Amino acid sequence: MFDPHLIRERYATVYERISAATTRAGRSADGITLVAVTKTWPAELALAAYEVGLRDFGENRPEELAEKRPAVEAALGPEAGITWHLIGTLQSRKSRLAADHADVFHALEREKIARRLAADLAENGRMLPSFVEVNLSGEATKSGLNVSRWEEDATQRDAVRRMLVDATPVLPVIGLMTMAPWDVPPEDIRAAFRRCRQLAEWLAGELPGAPRLALSMGMTDDFEIAIDEGATHIRVGRALFGEREK
Ligand SMILES: *Cc1c(COP(=O)(O)O)cnc(C)c1O
Description:
Elements: H1 4-25, E1 33-37, H2 43-51, E2 56-59, H3 62-76, E3 83-86, H4 95-101, E4 104-108, H5 111-124, E5 130-135, E6 145-146, H6 154-165, E7 173-177, H7 186-206, E8 214-216, H8 223-228, E9 233-236, H9 238-241
Parallel strand pairs: 1-2, 1-9, 2-3, 3-4, 4-5, 5-6, 5-7, 7-8
Helix pairs in contact: 2-3, 3-4, 4-5
């Protein structure tokens, strides 16, 4: 149903783009986790992506993850070595789906969700390393903790810091995630990614002994800029799988 050759070719192109970007930035491509965003595509596409070597998959809706992961595991077995990333906003009433099916969560943005997730995880005995999603532009339509003025605004900074301080062993915070603003020139995208990295650096200084924070930023159109600004996880859909229908 899905042509592995086409996916293999696109993956090679994405990999070349990653390599070129890491070389320019003086970084190693090994430092980048490519999250292949399979949202809206059926499980068969994830199977074809697995066949060409992709191992990190991203879903933005917990319901879809809760269907697709078991379907893929039915075909490959649970020990296939796939890491499932939930990359989209989570409503607290859906926390159970995330706790049961996600391996990494990229969009932690509220204490309430953190509490719900931690309770669900304590019950099912899983753990869910998570990124705190931050919103650097302050656009109300964007998800994430508002840190649009974090450099000046101690309240904004402290809201993020508290998410890290309050993190529990079942829900450890491993980094920050952000989405670039829409329809802006590349300089503005770069500025957003840079400020996200600087915020992570500030947090690392505030919480000595904390491991270096990962940075989930960059998608099909802007992942080179994100890599240049320190991204460790890029979330790529269209460049691997083509345009989504819905
Ligand atoms: C869909 C999605 C992506 C991937 O976007 P592409 O433009 O297809 O690469 C990345 N991150 C999130 C949160 C998404 O919802």
